What we know:
The protein is mainly beta.
Amino acid sequence: MKLNKIYSAILLSTLPLTPALAAGLDRSGQSIAAFLQPGNYAEAGISILDPKVQSNQLKVNDMAEDYYFPSAAIKVQATEHISIGLLYDQPFGAESLYPSNNPVFGANGEATQVEVETHNLSALIGYQPTENWNFYAGPVYQTVQGTVSLRGLAYGGASKLGSYDINLKEDEAYGWLAGFAYQIPEIALKTAVTYRSEIKHELDTTETFGFGAIQRPNALTEVVTPQSVNIDFQTGVAANTLAFANIRWAHWDQFAVTPKFLNAASGNNLIDYSDDQWSATVGVGRKFNSHWSGSASVGYDSGAGNPVTTLGPTEGYWTVGLGGQYSPAENYFIQAGVKYFWLGDAHAQTGGNIVGEFTDNYALGYGLKIGYRF
């Protein structure tokens, strides 16, 4: 079962689309698959997630906001043995909004809400001593910013933290990644292991209490985005058919956001997680003809502990996904896919006290990507 390089390159692109949802604040999965494409390659994509997170117990119909995030990459084979690349994604984030008319999470016409946004730019250089091996490393530039408002009885009402706001101003910091890949192009076998370091941020912070009546500016809040390891594997299993798998570990169990004045007032963290994240995706990709190919996958995410914060009250998920790819010519393609997420039930807590249970939750994820070989 031999596969030529062009055929392998087309099938490589049937790997699953951006996961769009994971444990903790994880979003993109931080894939470097674009950098491992043969020759010169560029891509751009967008992922959209439409979640429904509810609690019948607390009469919350849906607190999870729809969101989207783009990604882009370029890889250049500078010489026979040296490749360089630039990858952009939004690896971590959160976007939630509770109903303002629910007294548990709302007050004075305002609601509990959170928005966290990150941007990553990874620069890579790879060394290929032979056709089979690729060793790569590079710096990672990252920005983080966020805003959170706490409202309602879940946080003790207006007399405690039920009238609290925090603005975490954008901060930039640097980390690094390193890894290696091994491939046998003739049978479309490729495996890669990639480590990403943690990145430490110090964000200028303004906290307000009592619906803005008391302001506490000029403080710093430490946020450390987690280190992680991604393992990617694929191989040809039959004519025109690939099997693939991805395993990811992210170090969330020591993650905490502890604003100075909130901690002084309550002794608690704003956000924290108790467990590391483990996730896995397995699937198959098949080329139907010279223009069309498709993929199917199933996935699992362990979550980052339970009970969880009220700002993201789910624990892990199971997924099933389908993807299709159209290649008008050998050097470019258009890919689209959809995933259904069964989100895990979770107990939501504030200050160590369980507020209620969120059950029967789900999400739909959509992705679109365009790739070009030059």
